[in-house]
Structures are given as structure tokens and as C-alpha cells.
Target: Proteasome subunit alpha type
Amino acid sequence: MSGGTQSMYDRHITIFSPEGKLFQLEYSLKAVKNCNLTGLAYKDSKSISVVVQKKVPAKLNKNDTLLDSSSITSLYNITDGIMAVVVGLPADCLSMVYKAREEASNYFYKNGCDIPVHQLCQRIADMNQVYTQHAYMRLHACVGLLVSIDDENGPSIYKFDPSGWYASYKACAIGTKEQEGNNSLEKILKNPSEDTTVDAVSCMVSIIGSISDVKSSDLEVAVATIENPVFRILSKEAVETVLTTIAERD
Model:
């Protein structure tokens, strides 16, 4: 396909190319890949751990020396029992978080209980899918994981993307090095340890490089268990302890 012909299908996200592609959807997924962040979630029957790289966006780091890097995060609480891991364009990620919180709040107001994680992910996916049908809407360059200790299903991981697709996972990576992360998670699932946090952080270490390349300040780690279903974000000291455990094990 020539560049001129392809541009005809670039103008509106609602028009399929002869090859059956929505180019604007592909561009939004490409923008997520270019965010230079990778996140992942890993679970067993009793707990769930989430790890995501903590980086200040390159442009901000270069142009804004007064920026407080501690305010940069990819982990957000949607409800007391549901956490979101989002990567992509920062503003688009925040928009998806706010929409998720609004959906969760409306559900609680109408039903008097927290929304199940699978229903929340389905509603977010439905909103994303609508964006692919209207030319006046721009797709969100955001891919996310919703994680929760579900009352019925136990530890749960759900992934959504700009196309409106979503699914449940045993373990999942998203972001720039998604494929490398999923490959590492597959290996861990074949020979898991008794600590999901160690396994999840170990997977992230393998993605980044080696244990010597990773500092506690480079990672955000959150953990929830059946006994304590509210996600808690580990301190730098706690993350350093996990990194030390991995170094000694390896």
C-alpha cells in the first residue's frame, strides 16, 4: 500500500483499510510501546503482586529540574480492593483511572457494595470500544491491568487495551517490554516459589537486565493477600529486602 493510500485510512479511526486494519488503533498501541515503561502482575492461590518501573518521563526530567519525582506513579487505587497498573501516555492513563473510579463509585452508590473487578474491566473495555466507532473521539494510548482479591474468584488479574478487548490472566506484562515480560512469567509459572512478590520482582529484574542494574527506587511494588485484600505499596526498604533475597538466591 502506498503512503498516499494509507493516509486515506489514517484520517478516521472508524475506517478499515483493505487489509482489515484500523491504523489509529495500531498507532495508539505503538504509543504505549514507546512509553519506556513495563509493568506486570503475578498471582497464586493466596496472593497477588504487582511490579512496575518507576521513571520520570524523559522530557520532564530534562526540562523540569524542579519536578518532584515521588509524585510520578503508575499504580492507582480504584477502590479499597482494586488497584490499576497503567502504562502509556501519562494524561491518557490518568483519564482512564478517573473513568474507572467514576464507574466504581456509581456502582457502589447504586448497589451498596464494591464493583467486582471483572465487571469494572468490562465497563472500561466497553468505553474503549465505543471510541473506535466514532470519528470525533481519540483513542486513549493506555494499556492497563486491574488486580484484585475477588470475593468469589480470589486473586484476579484483568487486562484492557485501547481496542476494547479485555481478558483474565494468570500472570501478565504490559508496556514496552511486554513480550519479554510474558516470556519470563511463563518460566516462573512452571517453577514458582512460595512468594509471589519475589517471583514478580525477579521477573522485572530479568526484563531490565541484571540485579546489579536495579535499585529499589526504580520499582513500584504492591501486594495483597486473601488475609489482607487491600493493596499496600512497599517502601523502598522493603523493595530493597526483596532485591537482596533475589540476589542471594541467584
